[in-house]
Design a protein that fits this description.
This protein is α/β, with parallel strands linked by helices. The protein has 19 helices and 18 strands. It has a 9-stranded mixed β-sheet, with helices on both faces. α1 crosses α2, α2 runs antiparallel to α3 and α2 packs across α4. The two termini are 26 Å apart.
Length: 503
């Protein structure tokens, strides 16, 4: 643990010093060379005008505009660093290339889409949008929702034990402890049996849970491993874009996703913030292919070793079809549209009777606020469940800053009294649900690599609804009086909301 803390301090210090020296040098040049100052201010003005002209999310970009206007030198330098990394980083360029290549592997069966169109034209539009974004919709071969991590964990182990060909794991957090130890024992046995095992973990997500070089430790056991976007003491703003996905694929026949990482608090073996309320979703059959491709897309950015992804695609021709449809989908900061947010917005806009939402963080832009308010005003029963015991107090303060405007417009906010809600779930009208990794905040929507599972007319949607109703029953309904803040708290919340998109 000491080594991990030292690494964090060293990285933070290096980044701070590099930013400090860069800004200081430009400031000194500006003081002695008027032309430099003029050029920086001119560039900052051009940047602000460009943001305004090209932005399709002005509420997200307003933070940049204000920062650049308040501090042209610092704001301009930071903006250039971030955008230069986002569009010129070698890994991201490779990701774009690989994303184009995988389109040949993700082919939509038009018969499935036509069948949806006959049932619901509005949902057809939503599912066609996800499909044209690169993620086909499938007939449901089997979906199972787990309302708690400790319910999903035994099933995950059971399916891992069945592995004959390959196991792919991609997680934001892997932490040493009971959950990972038990999974690791299975992985080591499977490697000896000849099963190909690959693991991806996010370096930032695991900075306090795994030692530096843990990927090499796994490699020594025969487990192929990649540490995603490894943190570097030399300034790299791309460190801000993390792999927040949770994916487990076994033989291409079954996949798991949802909110749970591989750490003991997610199965309530370790208590941090009361009961850790999270979920998982298991997908079987054809739809598993989307998750397989998601994983291989990231894997081959780092190790270009798979010339044909089809070798990981089993036949599902004889699978018994169940009710409904399923789409595993992914979002990333390079998409022209924010697919994760668009899926949420379309669900809100299509809701007719009710909409229940689980989210650990409620940090939303004007588009989401307007959609939620309009849904409520047209008679939709909108309920949002947030943590009763937060994991981050400042973020929770920011979450609560949205309570008043939502409650005033008829939206009910519930705080989960027993502990911390980490689930990211929407369920609507007994017909639609999405379960995944995408939080209702700027980081998940704009910065991270994320994934989710969209369901339509699958019977398991009723299990999601049942979980929501039971959770609401355990939660505290926030009143308007409780949601109101005093003058100083409002100022603090306004400041946090202003710069939330940069966090």
């Amino acid at each position: 643990m000491k080594e991990r803390i030292k690494r964090i301090i060293f990285i933070v210090l290096c980044i701070f010093l590099q930013v400090f020296f860069t800004v200081t040098i430009f400031t000194l040049f500006s003081e002695y060379f008027g032309l430099v100052e003029f050029l920086l201010r001119f560039i900052s003005a051009l940047i602000v005008l460009t943001i305004i002209k090209n932005s399709n999310k002005l509420s997200s970009n307003i933070s940049w505009i204000i920062l650049i206007m308040l501090s042209p030198i610092f704001g301009t330098i930071l903006f250039i660093m971030v955008t230069d990394n986002l569009y010129h980083n070698k890994m991201l360029r490779t990701f774009i290339k690989k994303s184009d290549e995988i389109k040949d592997y993700l082919i939509q069966d038009d018969k499935v889409l036509k069948e949806i169109g006959k049932r619901d034209t509005h949902v057809y539009g939503q599912m066609k949008y996800i499909s044209t974004s690169g993620f086909p919709v499938y007939n449901n071969d089997g979906v199972k929702y787990y309302k708690l991590g400790e319910e999903a964990f035994p099933v995950m182990k059971e399916e891992l034990e069945k592995a004959k060909k390959f196991i792919f794991m991609e997680y934001f957090i892997i932490a040493e402890g009971k959950m990972w130890d038990e999974i690791l024992e299975i992985l080591k046995r499977k490697v000896k049996e000849g099963v190909e095992v690959r693991v991806i973990y996010d370096d930032f997500g695991c900075i306090t849970t795994l030692d530096n070089g843990y990927d090499k430790y796994l490699e020594s056991m025969g487990i192929k491993c990649i540490c995603f976007n490894k943190l570097n003491p030399v300034l790299s703003i791309f460190a801000n874009n993390r792999d927040h996905r949770k994916i487990l694929v076994i033989d291409g026949n079954v996949a798991f996703s949802g909110g749970i990482n591989i750490a003991d608090e997610y199965i309530n073996h370790k208590v941090r913030f009361g009961i850790w309320k999270d979920n998982a979703i298991m997908v079987k059959g054809e739809a598993t292919w989307n998750f397989t491709i998601m994983f291989l897309n990231v894997w081959n950015i780092y190790r270009n070793e798979d010339s044909d992804y089809n070798k990981y695609k089993p036949s599902h021709k004889n699978n018994k079809k169940e009710d409904g449809f399923v789409i595993p989908y992914a979002s990333n900061p390079l998409q022209k549209e924010s697919l994760g947010e668009d899926v949420y917005l379309n669900i809100v806009n299509q809701a007719n009777k009710y909409l229940y939402i689980f989210t650990p963080y409620l940090i939303i832009n004007s588009d989401m606020i307007s959609s939620l308010v309009l849904a409520s005003k047209r008679g939709v029963d909108v309920k949002i469940i947030t943590p009763g015991i937060p994991d981050k107090k400042i973020v929770n303060m920011l979450t609560k800053s949205y309570y008043e405007i939502l409650i005033k417009n008829g939206i009910e906010i519930y705080e989960y009294t027993p502990g911390f809600i980490h689930s990211k779930v929407f369920v609507c009208d007994d017909a639609i649900a999405t379960v995944g990794t995408i939080n209702l905040d700027y980081r998940s929507i704009d910065l991270n690599f994320e994934c989710g599972v969209y369901l339509f007319e699958a019977k398991e949607i009723m299990e999601v609804k049942k979980d929501a109703i039971e959770t609401i029953g355990e939660s505290h309904l926030v009143t308007l009086e409780e949601a109101k803040s005093n003058f100083f708290k409002k100022i603090g919340q306004a400041f946090l909301r202003l710069f939330a998109p940069l966090m």
